[in-house]
Design brief:
By secondary structure, this protein is of the alpha+beta class. The protein folds into two domains: 41 residues, no CATH class; 40 residues. Helices cover 17% and strands 7% of the residues. The longest helix is centred in the middle third of the chain and has 8 residues. The N and C termini lie far apart (88 Å). Bound molecules: zinc ion. The site of zinc ion (ZN) has 8 residues, from loops.
Length: 82
């Protein structure tokens, strides 16, 4: 059993399993897709995944925005307490 088949791939386009046979370009023998063009399938690091899931979106829903924008300017008056 020669184990000289190179790296194993699963074509991201057609799902064909193949080995790159140590060729410089790991192209699918069936559809010819260059596996280097595959969308990055690396599993996100747990940290990144959590960050994405729990990302505190600072954007406030515009629908909730009322006419209370004036309060922002009032805050500046806090310094005037004297
Ligand atoms: Zn393919």
């Amino acid at each position: 059993m020669a184990r000289d088949l190179g790296s194993k791939y699963v074509c991201f386009k057609c799902g064909t399993k193949f080995y790159d046979l140590k060729k410089p370009v790991p192209a699918c023998p069936k559809c010819g897709a260059d596996q280097r063009d595959a969308p990055v399938a690396k599993p996100l690091s747990a940290r990144a995944a959590r960050a994405a899931a729990a990302a505190p979106k600072t954007e406030e829903p515009e629908a909730a925005a009322t006419e209370e924008e004036d309060t922002e300017t009032e805050e500046e008056e806090d310094d005037d307490e004297d």
